[in-house]
Amino acid sequence: DLHSFYGGKSGAGKNYNATFDEVCGKAFNNQSLKNWENKIWNECGQSYSFMRHGDNVLPQQGKNLGFFPTVSLIIEYLTRPNPSFAKSLEKAKKEANWPADGVPVIALHYRAGDSCLEYVDALGRKCDKFSVYMAHVNLMAQKYNISHVYLATDSDSVIKEELKNYPNYTWHYIQDMDRGGVRNNMTVDDLLLKHKLDGCGEAQQSMIDIHLLAQADAYVGKFSSNIDRVAYNLMYARKQTHQPYTSLDNNWCFDFGVRSRLDTLTSEEDFVYC
């Protein structure tokens, strides 16, 4: 059963010791792109790396399921809404004018802001125009006859200036959300470290977007983004099968802080951070 599954112990535990708690604690309490290359960060990430340890990092009950389904079910369990968040989620869904049950929706995550400041050689990510994403949305919509799109974005300008260019879609998005501003000039990690953003508020907004993206029926985004990967995992867990998706850059991975994802944006065979 699920309780037994989630209570299972990981095979990675054979390399785990009390000191390691300290290592990972230091890494995650001082998180910044600048720290990703240091020894402490790498030791923490490598100890849980599927690329390095294979099935040994999976709970015993997950070995028959495989890596992706196991990660999907664990994420679903860990991010299940408590009563307070469930109310916030339902409120956001109503404010986004979510369509009736049975009406298919494309989930679209368009990230501008700090993603345009991050370096391609580390994350395998580049900053694309909204029209590039919409070319893939159009293909998805035509193939599956979908006219509703849920948009998760950190860009105010896209909502104000771009959506009017696509009147053939019914757009759904959270209107009362903090977008743009300081995020256009500094990475979110560094903004949090410098206390220029409210970490709790930022997490709440991100989790609402992730859960609403996951309630759609098809996905367009970039798997270089943690939000896209987690949302698609939750979509899989909800449907118990893969849904149509398009990643504009890289393949799905689950190896945070480890260079284990083959970069598909350049001609060089190089690994970038997952």
Let me know the number of strands: 7
The coarse silhouette is globular
The CA-CA distance between the termini, in Å, is 30 Å
Percent of residues in beta strands? 5-15%
Number of helices: 12
Mean pLDDT score, rounded? Answer: 81
Structural class, please? alpha/beta
Low-confidence stretches: 1-19
Strand order of the largest sheet: 3-2-1-4-5
From the alpha-carbon coordinates, what is the Rg to the nearest angstrom? 19 Å
Helix content bin: 40-55%
Account of the 3D structure:
This protein is of the alpha/beta class and 274 residues long. It has twelve helices and seven strands. The chain has helices spanning 2-7, 18-29, 39-47, 50-53, 67-78, 83-95, 120-123, 130-144, 156-162, 188-193, 199-214, 226-239, and strands spanning 105-110, 148-153, 170-172, 218-221, 245-247, 259-262, 271-273. The strands form two sheets. The protein has a five-stranded parallel beta sheet, sandwiched between helices. It has a two-stranded antiparallel ribbon with strand order 6-7. The longest helix has 16 residues, at 199-214. The radius of gyration is 19 Å and the shape is globular. Residues 1-19 have low confidence and may be disordered.
Index terms:
single chain, two-stranded antiparallel ribbon, globular, 274 residues, disordered N terminus, 43% helix, 12 helices, alpha/beta, 7 strands
Task: Tell me briefly what this model is.
The protein has twelve helices and seven strands. Residues 1-19 have low confidence and may be disordered. It is of the alpha/beta class and 274 residues long.
